[in-house]
Amino acid sequence: MIAEILSTGDEVRSGALVDSNSAYIAEALEEVGLEVTRHSTVGDDLDAIASIIKEIGARADVSVVTGGLGPTTDDITAEAAALAAGTELCEDDTALLSIENFFKKRQRLMNPLNRKQALLPKGSKCLENPAGTAPGFAVRIENCLFFFLPGVPSEMKKMLSEKVIPEITALWGGHREYSLVRNISTFGLTEAAVNENLLSVIDDYPDIRLGLRATFPEIHVKLYGRGKDEKKVSGLLESATGRVLEKLGNRVISTIGEPMELVVSRLLKNKKATLSVAESCTGGLVSNMLTNIPGSSDYFLFSGVTYSNESKIKLLGVQQSVIEKYGAVHEETAKEMAVCVRRITGATYGLSTSGIAGPSGGTDEKPVGTICIGLATPVEVKGFRFVFQFGDRLMNKKVFAVTALDLLRRELL
Amino acid sequence: MIAEILSTGDEVRSGALVDSNSAYIAEALEEVGLEVTRHSTVGDDLDAIASIIKEIGARADVSVVTGGLGPTTDDITAEAAALAAGTELCEDDTALLSIENFFKKRQRLMNPLNRKQALLPKGSKCLENPAGTAPGFAVRIENCLFFFLPGVPSEMKKMLSEKVIPEITALWGGHREYSLVRNISTFGLTEAAVNENLLSVIDDYPDIRLGLRATFPEIHVKLYGRGKDEKKVSGLLESATGRVLEKLGNRVISTIGEPMELVVSRLLKNKKATLSVAESCTGGLVSNMLTNIPGSSDYFLFSGVTYSNESKIKLLGVQQSVIEKYGAVHEETAKEMAVCVRRITGATYGLSTSGIAGPSGGTDEKPVGTICIGLATPVEVKGFRFVFQFGDRLMNKKVFAVTALDLLRRELL
């Protein structure tokens, strides 16, 4: 079955916004065995949308369309779909109810503008939106079954997995091919180095496609297998995953694509250990990443974001003499910070960061990209220093934070 | 002049790679006054590429195509362009020389495979690549002038600005149009409410297109103007911006699209004021956002991420009796946290958050989405409570943090 993807909206058309929805949808469709042949993007223009819908209708079996289902005047995708289908818009009861419920649940008054979102092309089936006001809809136009979804990524993703994929799988029936994917998250090697390490795996598994995806600063190794025999594909992927683990060792964070903070959280929970953090250059990022995981209050006690030397001394209890002797950015200072934050909070582990995220503040000896990390455990305290070459403040903060968490991960293993 | 963008390659088609090239090119073309009407993506398939090139040739005046110019067997864009143009590939002297020079300069031997990259469709003009081996080319197919560029972003960007844009501007001659855009960031109203507030602006400025962009939790109002007279377009946008300000008042954060943390940072700097933060439910996000701005050490003193009651009492000095009387999530507790963090750090302002980000921990009285915020200034302390209905931990953290910063922003104004 041939699939096409269409994204609509002036923001993506004009380049103000990068269209990441289409890649996400393409991957999801390919995973259930569809062959995505084309993506297109057009702006908020009635004729442009209607005309491309007709084109796709003549070429594809399935199409997923995003954008233009909001309540405002430039949201015209439903109207364009009706135009392409040669029908008209009608108020859909399910859609209206789902919008009303959205507001009711939140004890808010429904804006009259939102009523427009219940107008769907005649003959279409409403796809309820569990996360927003814009219901989607499915409708057949020419030879193609179209799924219209909102452009807000969080809403689109939910509806894609909960509504669209099950419908497509049902449609597919017994003819489906299985497209399976394994996602192995790694940290600590560049994309080129990961690739080089895995060359023999590519050779030994000709039926498996290997893709590398940088979700900075992690590199995710994706293994794709496809075939009619699900068990066979799955077994092949399992075996290839084993080879990747062999080749990359403890650079592998997770064999199911989990990010660093989730892996560290679970390790802490399993050990019934607690953690406190003293952050300088990461500015709260370590703590923000950890508290993004639900249930983090079980192990996360405290983070002190101590930018100034004064706050390091006064609030963490760092000895002034250590900072004076070594400077704020130094393994010894980082060790002292980790020990202090562990002590004042009674945590099992103390983790600290002190470095230079840039753009200014670098010296020859300690250039921008330098990070010192301290890790205090129940039995010892360790200090580390790394220099990264990304030259970008936000990338530096990110790689500093993930490096600190990675050191804790290795300690917990 | 109508422009279309085409990206080729299995990586973008299958979603393994997000196509950020197309957005970049669209913005660059719109900036010089072209009207980008459509982007398309197809895989490394000869017929698919040739057929879409023909389609574009019939619709557009100009087209920029990326990808498939490399030395390997799946790089087939030049062949597809020749097929679409009804011509054949010939070795191009300029192209061959530029490839040879690339290797000579780097004192490397040219791989025989690279010679293939000098094969261009007959009648096309070589566009030299200053940064890689793949030369681009320009060729007219049907009514459209096509520019073929490599897919590697760094090479594409260089060639776009150095080769393509000058050619288009020359072609455009005195007829060029100016496309200007204003980006007004707002916070505090839903997208529907912003739209409703601005209906009269849309009516009064028929030559200006208004677009809303949700960069959660901010809503950005974008005003687009286009015309031959740059001054006139600019004046019209200025006047419309004034009307938006009138309508939205202090919901407007910035008239140049700046995010909340940048606006707050500047206000603090201008006032030579300092800030300390006590974060509970935002878990370091407020502090992470502020420290993303270079130079934040000028005003940002400290953030204590105090998840537990114990750390609030022991490390911030919050009175146990306040927590016992009101509970951790309460305006009075938030006020006490703000006062304490201001006092222990000597900051001009103390800002605090305490709430329930979810997914669990909500009660009937304090449901998930409840946030209490404290703001201690040199003269007083204020407490606030809001309940948001997003029902998602990360969205709640985000809206909590931005709400806290917005209260500080209003205080600083």
Strand order of the largest sheet of chain A: 2-1-3-8-7-6
Rounded Rg of chain A:
26 Å
Strand content of chain A: 15-25%
CATH superfamily of the largest domain in chain A: MoaB/Mog-like domain
Total beta strands of chain A: 17
CATH topology heading of the largest domain in chain A: Molybdenum Cofactor Biosythetic Enzyme, Chain A
Helix content of chain A: 40-55%
In the CATH hierarchy, the architecture of the largest domain in chain A is 3-Layer(aba) Sandwich
End-to-end gap of chain A:
45 Å
Q: What is the CATH class designation of the largest domain in chain A? A: Alpha Beta
User: What are the low-pLDDT stretches of chain A, counting only 5+ consecutive residues below 50?
Assistant: none
Give a verbal description of the structure.
Chain A has 413 residues and is α/β, with parallel strands linked by helices. The first copy, chain A, folds into three domains: 2-175, Molybdenum Cofactor Biosythetic Enzyme, Chain A (3-Layer(aba) Sandwich); 178-254, Alpha-Beta Plaits, CATH 3.30.70; 261-412, Maf protein. In chain A, 41% of the residues lie in helices and 25% in strands. Chain A is built from 15 helices and 17 strands. Chain A has helices spanning 10-13, 21-31, 46-59, 77-85, 93-105, 153-172, 191-197, 199-204, 230-248, 260-270, 285-291, 309-316, 320-326, 331-345, 393-412; strands at residues 2-8, 35-42, 62-66, 89-91, 119-121, 125-127, 136-141, 144-149, 178-186, 209-215, 218-227, 252-254, 275-279, 300-306, 349-355, 370-376, 381-387. In chain A, the strands form four sheets. Chain A has a six-stranded mixed beta sheet, sandwiched between helices. A five-stranded mixed beta sheet of chain A has the order 14-13-15-16-17, sandwiched between helices. In chain A, strand 7 (136-141) and strand 8 (144-149) form a beta hairpin. In chain A, helix 2 (21-31) runs parallel beside helix 6 (153-172), helix 3 (46-59) packs across helix 4 (77-85) and helix 10 (260-270) runs parallel beside helix 15 (393-412). Chain A is globular. Chain A starts with a strand and ends with a helix. The model of chain A has no long low-confidence stretch (mean pLDDT 93). At the A-B interface, helix 1, helix 2, strand 2, helix 11 and strand 14 of A face helix 1, helix 2, strand 2, helix 7 and strand 10 of B.
